[in-house]
Amino acid sequence: MTIQVLQTPLFAKQKKKLRKTQIKELDKTIKVIIKDPKAGEQKKGNLTSIWVYKFKITNQLYLLAYEWNKKSRILIALGVHKNLYRKLKKYLK
Q1: For 36-54, what is the mean pLDDT?
Q2: Assigned CATH class of 4-92
Q3: Four-residue CA torsion sign, 6, 18, 38, 31
Q4: Cα-Cα-Cα-Cα dihedral of 52, 79, 15, 47, to 10°?
Q5: Which of 17, 30, 53, 92 would be 40's cystine partner, CB 3.0–4.6 Å?
Q6: CA distance 91 to 69
Q7: pTM score, two decimals?
Q8: Stretch 14-27: mean pLDDT, rounded?
């Protein structure tokens, strides 16, 4: 079964800001999420449908927010901890 990977405009905008080496690390992370969508941590409260996977790029902790079902993975946002949740809440409104 082929899993479809979709990205939101917010994710695409944040990904554009990364360097090529950082994008390679991000691609490895996305492959992990495709294989095991429960690798991340499910959020609570008003972000219940969101899962967040933490990973490092050049000693900086990044968070990748996504939603998933059996057929697809939707990449919602990417960023450092402080700004990610603020952007997520704005995006979901």
Answers
A1: 92
A2: alpha beta
A3: positive
A4: 40
A5: 53
A6: 20
A7: 0.91
A8: 94
Task: Give residues with Cβ within 8 angstroms of 50, minimum separation 6.
Answer: 42, 43, 65, 66, 67, 76, 88
Q: 55 near 25, Cβ under 8 Å? A: yes
Residue 2 is classified by DSSP as: P
- Give 24-76 as a DSSP string: HHHHHHHHHHHH-GGGSEE--GGGTT-EEEEEEETTEEEEEEEEE-SSEEEEE
How is residue 59 written in tokens? 């000693």
d(CA 42, CA 14): 21
Dist. CA 48–CA 46, nearest whole Å:
6
pLDDT, position 45: 85
